[in-house]
């Protein structure tokens, strides 16, 4: 296994990486509670002491972070094994990659038949993984009902069903922020103070207009001409939009927050043109680094290094503390658009059991534990208490004594990615009632009329691949402002249409109409 992992990681380094934007954008469970009913796997029906026989099953658990495997990954792995070795008869190996190379590394691993038992689909497209046949049917042989009853109780059947593709369940949703604050930017507070920006309010997120954000960037550039004011990411356009990306792709979308079930071509819309013109203006004014399209360094790392001022993120309760933790600098969050639940919000990046899993039953048992065992969830999210974090008298977690964001050996700041964030300690800087606020945030957001719709790419698999290849060729140059928008968009759209974009749009409309007819 070690040799395979080394080979995979070497291949990943050679691969072109996606540019990870620093944001925890996602959307959280609107039903299914906070997971607290099954602390530490207390529901005897949900767990099975597989360790009673003395036999140990070895599983591989793969997920990305923005910057790759933290230094204490093996130590965390052992701490998790101490919890499940005797209880479940299971030990895991954590396989952690950086976000930029995760898609490539997982594709290499799964296409090569390498053992991966549990995988996050963040950065490894859920829809594409299903289409490629990489993921197992989680209800085959009653896998979920037999070994994952705790997951269904925590998440609720409606959220489970939102992850179906063509009626088949290939993934399980995270318990997190299902809504997303759209049009958000994180800005390092020290630079705002440098231009005299009024930060006297007590709101976690500051509501402004796009014009006000543009003016803010102009002031920052004038004051700090040697720093990169803004770094776009591959998800920035979708985040700064009112677009519902049906099926998780922008090849056929609903505009205007999905108020109407009319599938349209994003690349001929006024919104897309206006967005690209705004970013082109940023680029022409020198706000964006000239190597932004090729540099795969996480935006949060650039802020931490003191070379970048601002980047795109997703708004939600707790976002200020999350981004401050990631950057090692106090961050201020601005929001220009609504909170939104899209069609794919619940199923944005489910956890799945790949077809290369050595033991699907054990994998489901382990997933069940991650959704129901607070001790296990906290180790995976925050590390080892007393070494990586501590819990204060107020019940809030903070870095352990002598440790900070830069020196901690387990500081991925991606609790929202883990199966059940609502089981974990709330981090200092957040409200003690954060998880209750998160549920209210989810329930009060604008909801797409297509919420819960999933797109089956089977009939247009070749077209999706071909159009995606065109988009990969043009996206950063067009959406990072390196080409004149009217010419760049027209050329990209023409090639996309030739590759089958209209066929994808038509297929989405057909499936959406059929889905709507059942509601």
What key phrases describe this protein's structure?
seven-stranded mixed beta sheet, alpha/beta, 19 helices, 39% helix
Structural account:
39% of the residues lie in helices and 13% in strands. By secondary structure, it is of the alpha/beta class. α1 crosses α3, α2 runs antiparallel to α15 and α6 packs parallel to α14. The longest helix is centred in the last third of the chain and has 19 residues. The chain is globular and about 65 Å long. The N terminus is likely disordered.
Q: What is the first-to-last residue Cα distance?
A: 47 Å
Low-confidence stretches: 1-49
Q: Using only CA atoms, what is the Rg?
A: 22 Å
Let me know the largest β-sheet: 7 strands, mixed
Number of helices: 19
Which class of secondary structure composition applies to the elements? alpha/beta
What is the number of strand segments?
Answer: 16
Please indicate the percent range of residues in DSSP E strands (runs of 2 or more): 5-15%
Helical residues, percent? 25-40%
Shape: globular
- Mean pLDDT across every amino acid position: 89
């Amino acid at each position: 296994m070690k040799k395979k992992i080394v080979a995979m990681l070497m291949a990943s380094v050679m691969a072109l990486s996606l540019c990870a934007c620093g944001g925890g954008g996602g959307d959280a469970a609107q039903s299914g509670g906070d997971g607290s009913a099954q602390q530490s796997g207390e529901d005897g029906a949900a767990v099975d002491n597989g360790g009673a026989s003395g036999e140990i099953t070895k599983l591989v658990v793969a997920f990305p972070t923005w910057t790759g495997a933290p230094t204490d990954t093996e130590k965390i792995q052992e701490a998790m094994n101490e919890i499940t070795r005797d209880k479940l008869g299971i030990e895991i190996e954590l396989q952690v990659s950086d976000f930029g190379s995760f898609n490539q590394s997982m594709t290499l691993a799964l296409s090569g038949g390498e053992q991966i038992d549990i995988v996050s689909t963040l950065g490894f497209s859920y829809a594409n993984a299903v289409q490629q046949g990489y993921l197992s049917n989680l209800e085959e042989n009653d896998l979920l009902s037999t070994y994952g009853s705790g997951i269904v109780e925590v998440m609720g059947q409606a959220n489970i069903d939102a992850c179906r593709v063509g009626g088949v369940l290939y993934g399980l949703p995270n318990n997190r922020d299902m809504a997303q604050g759209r049009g958000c930017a994180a800005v390092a507070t020290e630079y705002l103070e440098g231009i005299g920006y009024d930060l006297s309010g007590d709101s976690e997120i500051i509501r402004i207009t796009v014009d006000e954000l543009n003016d803010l960037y102009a002031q920052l550039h004038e004051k700090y001409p040697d720093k990169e004011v803004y770094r776009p990411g591959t998800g920035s356009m979708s985040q700064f939009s009112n677009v519902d990306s049906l099926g998780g792709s922008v090849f056929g979308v609903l505009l205007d927050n999905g108020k109407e079930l009319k599938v349209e071509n994003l690349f001929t819309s006024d919104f897309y043109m206006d967005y690209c013109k705004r970013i082109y203006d940023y680029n022409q004014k020198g706000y964006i680094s000239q190597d932004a399209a090729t540099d795969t360094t996480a935006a949060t790392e650039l802020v931490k290094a003191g070379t970048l001022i601002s980047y795109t993120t997703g708004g939600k309760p707790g976002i200020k503390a999350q981004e401050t933790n990631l950057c090692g600098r106090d961050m201020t969050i601005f929001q220009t658009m609504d909170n939104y639940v899209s069609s794919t919000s619940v199923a944005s990046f489910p956890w799945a059991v790949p077809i290369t899993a050595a033991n699907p039953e054990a994998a489901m048992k382990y997933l069940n534990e991650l959704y129901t065992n607070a001790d296990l969830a906290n180790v995976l999210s925050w590390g080892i208490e007393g070494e990586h974090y501590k819990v204060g008298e107020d019940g809030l977690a903070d870095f352990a004594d002598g440790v900070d964001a830069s020196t901690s050996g387990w500081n991925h700041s991606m609790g929202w990615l883990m199966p059940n964030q609502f089981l974990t300690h709330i981090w200092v800087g957040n409200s003690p009632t954060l998880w209750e606020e998160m549920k209210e945030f989810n329930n009060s957001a604008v909801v797409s009329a297509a919420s819960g719709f999933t797109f089956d790419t089977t009939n247009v698999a070749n077209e999706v691949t071909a159009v995606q290849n065109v988009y990969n060729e043009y996206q950063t140059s067009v959406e990072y402002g390196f080409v004149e928008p009217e010419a760049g968009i027209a050329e990209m759209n023409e090639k996309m249409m030739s590759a089958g974009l209209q066929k994808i749009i038509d297929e989405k409309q057909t499936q959406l109409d059929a889905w709507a007819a059942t509601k």
